[in-house]
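Meet our chain:
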Amino acid sequence: MPWEIALELVKKLQPDDAADLFGKLSSEKVQRFLASLDPDQKSQISKLLAYDKNTAGGIMNSNVFTLSQAATVQQAIEAVRTQTQVPMIFYLYVIDEQKHLVGIVSLRHLILSQPSVLLKDIMNTNVSAILVNQSQAEVAQLMTRHNFLAAPVVDEEKKLLGVVTVDDVMGVIQEEATQNLYRMAGVEKDERVFTPIKKSIKNRTTWLSVVASMGGIAGSQTLTIMVRGLALGEVAIADAWKVIIKELQVGVANGVINGLVMAIVAYYWKGVPVLGLVLMLSMIGNLFIAALVGAVIPIGLKAIKVDPAVASAVVVTTFTDCFGFFSFLGLATLLVKYLT
């Protein structure tokens, strides 16, 4: 994208959105953008970048609409009418002369009040504010628990610094849910459907163990990533073959890695090379099937309009458990004369 177009787009962003974007760019590009912005916008974005990205300060919008407690209802309504630089106003935050947050007024209450009444006489002083250094997870929990559309962010002295809106925490809630889901399946939090093969192998290998359960674990890992990818639109039915091939490569690679380890252990434990071979081949075959069904089943269910999150686990577990025992015991039966 040409630099001039990129700069114009950045200038139109709210400070919090610009800070989020800058957090993903190199320091050189960030400095170039900042040097080209007007002083006020540069100042707001720089302040946000100074906060830890995982705190309320990292996701808040410092461009917040405030009113003096000494203002009348009529003055407040006129101020709201003429306000064009602030995004959607959910609540009116009332401050004192030192910019301390002292109260809040809803738009409905403001409109229904007498024009000559002072804001300090109608404001609600029981305000649920967020500390600027609170974690994003705590902010998301607070706003979800109380069904807030927005919440003010203050420092230790209760000075109003900004506001966090519901759209700011949606990504946090999604990320927290993804992390919890991935933890249950033994998958790293940054794994996605199209994560590079080498990284996927490294992420998943350490969670695999013995032949009987390995297929179930590997199948759950693939299934978890696939169901999330389908739910969020990260993968379409048309891209199914790419995902399946990638998962098969990861499955076979993990099978070879763990199979070799188990083969070496079995050889030194029992002194029977064929036992090691049986274990290695069983693991390779089992993880191949686990990756195949873990990728194919949710895509197939999605194609026939069945929710993959509901029906996939039963089918995948059945396949992996059956094939896990079949591959190990079947190969052992075929090669039994070499195991004694």
About this structure: The first strand starts at residue 66 and ends at 68. The mean pLDDT is 81.
